[in-house]
Write a structure and sequence with these properties.
Shape: globular
CATH superfamily of the largest domain: Fumarylacetoacetase-like, C-terminal domain
Distance between the termini: 41 Å
Number of strands: 19
Number of domains: 2
Radius of gyration: 20 Å
Largest sheet: 7 strands, mixed
CATH topology of the largest domain: Fumarylacetoacetate hydrolase, domain 2
Structural class: alpha+beta
CATH class of the largest domain: Alpha Beta
Order of helices and strands: EEEHHHEEEHEEEEEEEHEEEHEEE
CATH architecture of the largest domain: Alpha-Beta Complex
Number of helices: 6
Length: 323
């Protein structure tokens, strides 16, 4: 890992508050305390939350890199504590808006077409289509690494979806594809959980515009485990070549790469920015690859543990309980 590397996290402070921290070589450094110690301006406010860091990303990111370098060159110069003794929370406890891409991995689209006995779909680019997203609730859905998540009592078919998520660090509106990634602070991991048996409303005609129930399917309590931290984008050599895997207990279910994305991360940011202003703290889940439970008729049950690994970012693990 380069000398300036760090991971941006939220941790539970000993006094019970949530605090922004950076993880450097299995040590946690409090952001506000370290920035205050390194600043010559005693009156300069130091951010205590990750959202506050993201709102000042261009200013604070280089300062955090400098603190990481100092911690490596002289560990005694920067106050820190062992990661093993710290409870990590979701890196962004309350994202601004959570956008989730649907049908955005080639291998996943192919497996669902086979499962539904449909002909293979053409590349949306060839049809002149744009990226497609839905929105998840923030405070209700987000859970952190290691959190135990209660399966919704109304569903018997809760499915997993390993995804790489973009974290916005610079406001953007009508940004082009070429400059879209300039507005990204970093990447994290999400599990875009889905209640597959509640996509459609019973008793409503399929052709009705009110046929779909996105809240029940996608926005139940705990429907978006997120974490364990944010990896700064400039730490990632190539966002289009990140391996992504998911295990349910010891069974490898998803094993793919961001090279299978249909609409790239830059294309998704660009398109969304033509619809609304993206702001620091917004999260874009970029889609899930093949290997979901719906394609094989297997769904989550109480006692299951799901682990997601994304190359260069880390691992996110959660256990599921009965609702």
């Amino acid at each position: 890992m380069p000398a300036h590397s760090y991971r941006l996290a939220t941790y539970a402070h000993a006094r019970g508050q949530s605090r922004a921290g950076i993880v450097v070589d299995e040590r946690v450094i409090d952001v506000a305390t370290s920035l205050a110690s390194a600043s010559s301006d005693a009156k300069a406010p130091s951010p205590t939350s990750v959202v506050e860091v993201l709102e000042r990303w261009e200013e604070i990111h280089p300062r955090l890199q400098a603190i990481a370098r100092s911690a490596r060159s002289d560990p005694s110069a920067v106050a820190s504590f062992a990661l093993s003794g710290v409870q990590l929370l979701a890196p962004i406890l309350y994202p601004g808006t959570i956008f989730c891409a649907g049908g955005n991995y080639r291998d996943h689209v192919a497996e669902m077409s086979r499962a539904m006995k449909l002909p293979p779909e053409r590349d949306p680019h060839e049809l002149g289509l744009k990226p497609w997203h839905f929105i998840k609730a923030s405070a209700s859905c987000v859970r952190g690494p290691g959190a135990r998540i209660a399966l919704p009592a109304y569903s018997k078919k809760v499915d997993w979806e390993a995804e790489i998520a973009i974290v916005i660090g610079r406001e953007c509106r009508d940004v082009n594809v070429e400059r879209a990634l300039e507005h990204v602070a970093g990447l994290t991991i999400v599990n875009d959980l889905s209640a597959r048996d509640h996509l459609r409303r019973e008793g409503v005609a399929p052709e009705s515009p009110f046929h779909f129930d996105w809240v029940s399917q996608k926005s139940f309590d705990g429907a978006l485990p997120l974490g364990p931290w944010i990896c700064p984008l400039d730490e990632i050599a190539d966002v289009s070549k990140l391996g992504i895997k998911l295990w349910v207990n010891d069974d490898l279910m998803q094993d793919s790469s961001s090279s299978n994305l249909i609409f790239s991360m830059a294309e998704q940011i660009s398109h969304l920015s033509t619809r609304l202003t993206l702001r620091p703290g917004d999260v874009i889940a970029t889609g899930t690859p093949a290997g979901v439970g719906a394609a094989r008729g297997r769904f989550l049950k109480a006692g299951d543990r799901v682990r997601i690994s994304v190359e260069g970012i880390g691992e996110l693990s959660n256990e599921f309980t009965s609702g």
